[in-house]
Amino acid sequence: MENNWEGILSYSRYQEDIVGCSKESRVSHVLSERLSRGPLLWSKDGAHNIA
Description:
By secondary structure, the protein is an all-alpha fold. It has 3 helices and no strands. The protein has helices at 5-13, 23-36, 44-50.
């Protein structure tokens, strides 16, 4: 939180001007899908893209 404090303040100040996106929920869905099917390997490029 300390590293993102300016972003947090900006979001609270300009909340009506900021359009949200669903990236966080999509990443969560992909990780959940991959991790719930059992151990799957990630390529270095694939792990980097998710990170």
